[in-house]
Amino acid sequence: MKPSENLPSDSAPQSLAAAPPAVLSVSPTSGATGGGTVVTVNGTGFTGATAVRFGATQGTAVTVVSDTQITVTSPPGTGTVQVTVTTPAGTSNQFVTFGYTATPAPVLSALSPNTGPAAGGTVVTLSGTGFTGATAVRFGSVSASFTVVSSTQIAATAPAGSGTAQVTVTTPGGTSNGLPYTYSAVSAPVLSSVSPNTGPAAGGTVVTLSGTGLAGATAVRFGSVSASFTVVSSTQITAVAPAGTGTVQVTVTTPGGTSNGVAFTYVSVSAPVLSSVSPSSGSSAGGTAVTLTGSGLTNASAVRFGSTPATSFTVVSDTVITAVAPAGTGTVQVTVTTPGGTSNGVAFTYTSVAVPVLSSVSPSSGSSAGGTAVTLTGSGLTNASAVRFGSTPATSFTVVSDTVITAVAPAGSGTVQVTVTTPGGTSNGLSYTYVVAPTLTAVSPNQGPTSGGNTVTLTGTNLTGTTAVAFGTTPAVSFTVVSPTQITAVAPASVAGVVSITVTGPGGSSTLPNSYFFVNAPVLTAVTPLSGPLAGGNTVTLVGSSLVEATAVRFGSTAATSFTVVSDSQITAVVPAGLAGPVQVTVTTVGGTSNPVTYTYLTPPVITSLSPTQGSTSGGSTVTLTGSNFSQATKVFFGSQPVGFTLVSDTHLVADVPAGAPGPVNVTVVGPGGTSAPQTYTRLSSPGI
């Protein structure tokens, strides 16, 4: 409120003078000796407040919230001081105190997680010291809701935001250091399917969740019940259904939010049903790997060949089990037992056919995504009924001869045993290693010239064995695998623009989108002015194109004293000192060094003599100056007075003599190269009569 607004008008009745303000309480009542505590002052008559003081020291950031409330930031201080408010009506009572404490400011050491969606809502754990009595947690300038767990831990809910914000904690001891928290533009995950979408009420069903944005999942829920899970990729998660009833919605939560729900139905468990066993025969010595197909196989507790338990078995899904046949004779019934009971039996016949033998697998490694073609060599491979990589059947296989099979590896991980099953049984296993696809995370530098040839460091994971590096569609000139997490590559030539970088290895490829910029070399078309003094210090304007990322401006081999990039087509530069004559001016960017433009260092003019050297005080005559470097003369001075002149040649000019007081005066010539040393011209008084 302006002071004039409190004055009565001529037509309004006069009122009593306003009462001075009164301070009734402050909150908090203490703060750090270093100041910085945000204090709320409560009382009356605060309208128009001009100062809030802590003792004799004025507080900062004073905001009059209302006639009864002010917020103010405490200044540094010690001991106990009186808090007063001053308004045009006077200064308040001095009964309310504020105590300075030696409480140290809190210290932040870690945030977990330190990223979250722009919509906020992420629960962040703040670790550090001195959190007791915390009064605020801020993400940048935005306050967050929080709970002080202990003196070393706070749980805070991130507010909405963008970019990177500094997280701070404020206590009576002051405000902590800041730690960065990054708001990401991560979208909420999207689920498209759950397979299978049914399972027993007892839980335990292994389901595959498909969708997008699943990387970084923090929770999978069946209804409100959390499930154990494994993130296979950004489009797939495997989860184990918890116990439940009815139909529930399956959701996935990531830092980007919680997905839509996909239905999963709990069903009453019935006895399993077997429809086939493949192969249906095997060696009497046992060891044949068989696949049992049917329904209700989830939670199988036993697989038996006759009365003999299988050597081992794996529940692949509710409809598939893989098992290793024990030793036996004749034809037996294979059964599966689950909590719902024991299945019907399907026949399996033991034969005396020799068990196949594997001697090699080539190649012995391939992508974890599958699809690698491998050749299996051995004996007894005729009539092969199955090729398995671990417990997973090959995508396809072809029996070439009794000693060779070609197969396509399925998806997998780690090192597995490759086996072949024939009516004689299952072969020995040979190792096959799944290689994880490489991952690119960073490129440094992320830009370079269109001519290529610069070295770029690529950072990521699983880079060992890299076979190719490409900038867009163009292969790198060369590359070196430094470690499993680093590659150095020489960039190829390319047109200007942004490209993605792709690394390819035995496990597949990884692309970092729009991660490298090819930058045109700068081009200079003009420098204005074209010349200047040897001492430098004058400013020139460089005109051209592709100048925006300039890192250096040089006059010959000498760097400009300073330069400013005005736009992509203009730079202003302060000329350094130089030697007389022309030099080549260039601009350097990450795209290379420009063509040169010529700038000339000029020597200042030199006056060797004046003719005549003296004249009348009334002026009106001319004087001839003899010297050198007159051709670019811009001004001639008699003392501080500029005069007209006529340039005769580079060594002569004729100047007009102005009127002036008697006595000597300095004559100088100014040109682009500077100002000449003076010569003396003397004005003589006219003789008296």
From TrEMBL:
Residues 1-20 are annotated as: Disordered. Residues 7-20 have a biased composition (Low complexity). Keywords: Signal. InterPro entries: Fibrocystin, Ig-like_fold, Ig_E-set, IPT_dom. It holds the Pfam family TIG. CDD domains: IPT (cd00102), IPT_PCSR (cd00603). Residues 20-101, 105-184, 188-267, 271-351, 355-435, 437-519, 521-602, 604-682 form the IPT/TIG domain. This is IPT/TIG domain-containing protein.
